[in-house]
């Protein structure tokens, strides 16, 4: 290769690194990958179809880490990520900014979480009046109302039951509410980050209800938190008896305070706010309670001034996380990656379109594929360099196909603070490779 | 002694059994408790009197004794609520208005307030008692909560300023949005899995 070609190539590599925005975390691996793909694309362009790249001749120096003793082991520690990953953090929304941080939410950087498990420190948060600091030795759960024998359980009691451990996603009903009709958010963390997934450990709610002797006439239960909002929701008893869990651990450790320590309810596949954190009380009744959190909030505006209530399930949804808003890609090979999930069952298929939804190709699902759990999809894309719009669409085990926003708009009122956005979500890719929110 | 090879085989066998178990499972319901484990201790409803604060808002079941009107409610509001919600509950430094919006739901801009949105008036009592004020929840007396509920209802034109709110009168207030809710009827979309030339 001629000297000026080398310099040109080097310049391209440098500029591609500069283009990576600070708020998008890209690992060392990805940076290295970008460098090599730029080199490949650049070489192919300059040397023609042969694809032969001149071998590097500069001698690789011995890395400093090979010549220096590492940091010594700490006698006791809780390990933290590398300092080079310090940008991977939960963040509040840039669009709907609350004026206080007690009834507020933070979003998971799903562009930076490989696999299906969200690390506990990155799990999204929604609190209604701050995070309580609860001593598990003092915490109690009571079960009462329409039961034969009201019960009280301590945390020591609860952890003695046989364990049940399951992987499930959790999504806030408000995920995506800033971006229904016009592009407001920049990154996938902001458009879809009220989404996380964990392995949950606890005790089936049905066991405790059996023990208390649930009245056959009871049809609804409330679950109530020990936080300063006393947040509670009415939940149909059938769901509680089917797959609801009293959870005390997630991802191999006890719950974090912000995730409900020492005890939370977990309702698989349903909007996150029914999985009551800091759970202190379950009460059985014959009707729902119609609390503020299930009438004035967490209801859906419908045409003709109506509202839909008890819209619990998070319907099938998918989103491309790589590449996604704020990233810049280079021509050549790019793996399209994303998540698909359904509160109604398993993901059975994901399709990807690179022309804004006109033509679709089937993506590969990465094992394991689990009921009501995040599923990874992957699609090999050889980007030729022109403008593109990339979008994913999933199908679940009920046969339900993820709708477009247009499909949803035909049957609901998209006005104001609208929950349950499971519409297709496109990203625009410009001719120069910038990826931006493609809604609207 | 078990050889390494035997461990390898049995581990592999276990794994394949697990995989079979996973792939043949159709639902994800919880298992039954076959262990006999039962660790709950009996507790009386009387012992739960301070915890048992939920109100079934459609008929007011659970509303406690006590009463208050908007005249008293305004005083309490100005002392404990206006710093966040603003004068006359029209919105303050932290939160938006709690007044108005009735009739706005058939327009493109729905204004959500307790007056326009709550289907049942006892929601006010239930929510204020358990969650307000944010810096001292569960600090108000039942009379104060009735008075604050009366004040917010009065500002929304739903009760007179001197109307006494108690467990009977609060539950009897007719809220304008009462009949506008219906239970989830999804799936409401019928998307098809079109693969080529879709739009």
Reported for the largest beta sheet of chain B, the result is: none
The count of β-strands of chain A is 23
In CATH, the topology of the largest domain in chain A is named Sulfite Oxidase, Chain A, domain 2
Overall mean pLDDT of chain A stands at: 91
CATH structural class of the domain at 69-172 in chain B: Mainly Alpha
Query: Which architecture of the largest domain in chain A does the CATH hierarchy give at level 2?
Result: Alpha-Beta Complex
What are the key terms here?
heterodimer; A: 440 residues; Sulfite Oxidase, Chain A, domain 2; Immunoglobulin-like; 3 domains; 5-stranded antiparallel beta sheet; 23 strands; B: 199 residues; mainly alpha; Cytochrome Bc1 Complex, Chain D, domain 2; disordered N terminus
Protein model, in words:
The complex is a heterodimer of chains A (440) and B (199). Chain A is α+β, with helices and mostly antiparallel strands and 440 residues long. Chain A is built from seven helices and 23 strands. In chain A, the strands form six sheets. A five-stranded mixed β-sheet of chain A has the order 4-3-12-7-8. In chain A, strands 5, 6, 9, 10 and 11 form a five-stranded antiparallel β-sheet that branches. Chain A has a five-stranded antiparallel β-sheet with strand order 18-17-21-22-23, with no helix packed on it. In chain A, strand 22 and strand 23 form a beta hairpin. Chain A is globular, with a radius of gyration of 25 Å. Residues 12-50 of chain A have low confidence and may be disordered. Chain B contains seven helices and two strands. Residues 1-26 of chain B have low confidence and may be disordered. By secondary structure, chain B is mainly alpha-helical. Chain B has helices at residues 4-24, 70-80, 82-85, 114-117, 122-131, 142-155, 167-172; strands at 41-42, 181-183. In chain B, helix 2 crosses helix 6 (142-155) and helix 5 crosses helix 6. Chain B has a domain at 69-172: Cytochrome c-like domain (Cytochrome Bc1 Complex, Chain D, domain 2), CATH 1.10.760. Chain B is extended, with a radius of gyration of 27 Å. Helix content of chain B is 35%, strand content 3%. Classes of the chains: A alpha+beta (440), B mainly alpha (199). Chains A and B meet through strand 3, strand 4, helix 5, strand 12 and strand 14 of A and strand 1, helix 5 and strand 2 of B. Strand 4 of chain A pairs antiparallel with strand 1 (41-42) of chain B.
